[in-house]
Amino acid sequence: MSGHSKWSQIKHKKSITDQKKGALFSKIARELTAAARAGGPDTDTNARLRASIEHARSSGLPKDNIARAILRASGATDADSASDFLYEAFGPEGVLILIEGITDNKNRLLAEIRKILGDHGAKFSDPGAVLWNFEKRGLLFVDRKDSPGATEDQIELAVIDAGARDYEKDGDAWIVETLAGETERVQERLTASGIPTKEPGYGYRAKTHIALSASGRAAATSLLNALSDHDDVEDVYTNAETITHI
């Protein structure tokens, strides 16, 4: 267990600010609808929906908004259909990029993402040309304040004993990585040991990384920020080393 999974370098999660909260709530609502549509509205049999509801609650989405978002999946409302997307692209100096999110208009989205890529010297790749270099992993988040009676060493030992694949310390929290399909089992073991988790989900880890020049890093950072700011984009992943975006 290395403790150096580099998630902060390859995965971007927007912080919740007052001015962006409305956009964040819209994204979460679309995720709830997509999860319910994909696996049904029963949380007992739909793990993705359970995770989406937990994320919605932890982010402060009102209970009525959660219910309406799930109801949309049944077609009981007039809301537009939302669907997942995962696009692959080549960025500056050949850096590999995955762009993930939910949209209600793929034609519009494709045109907008293509423009962002073009404006930053990037382009869509053929399907599979980028995805091969990424592995899908489960993610759990452990907040220090949720386990006031445990020391940092006890939390990290519990993470290891629960069967986590890796973890990374991020301030007063831990980003816990699991193998695909094992997230719920690890979460249950952590909860049983007195270490609650929140916002279960998943991410993509690059198998190999590449180093960029100073100008390449600047260009890639600008591109990743522009992609992340798009309302329909949930997460952006890259195989670039030592790159951060806000």
Explain what this protein looks like in three dimensions.
By secondary structure, the protein is of the alpha+beta class. It has a domain at 7-72: Integrase, N-terminal zinc-binding domain (Arc Repressor Mutant, subunit A, Orthogonal Bundle). It is 38% helix and 22% strand. It is built from eight helices and eight strands, in the order ααααββαββαββαβαβ. The protein has helices at 7-10, 21-39, 47-58, 63-72, 106-119, 152-161, 183-192, 214-228; strands at 83-90, 96-103, 123-124, 134-143, 166-170, 173-178, 198-206, 233-238. Strands 3-1-2-8 form a four-stranded antiparallel β-sheet. Strands 5-6-4-7 form a four-stranded antiparallel β-sheet. A hairpin with a 5-residue loop joins strand 1 (83-90) and strand 2 (96-103). Helix 2 packs antiparallel against helix 3 (47-58) and helix 2 crosses helix 4 (63-72). The longest helix has 19 residues, at 21-39. The radius of gyration is 18 Å and the shape is globular. The protein starts with 6 loop residues before the first helix and ends in an 8-residue tail after the last strand. 35% of the residues are buried.
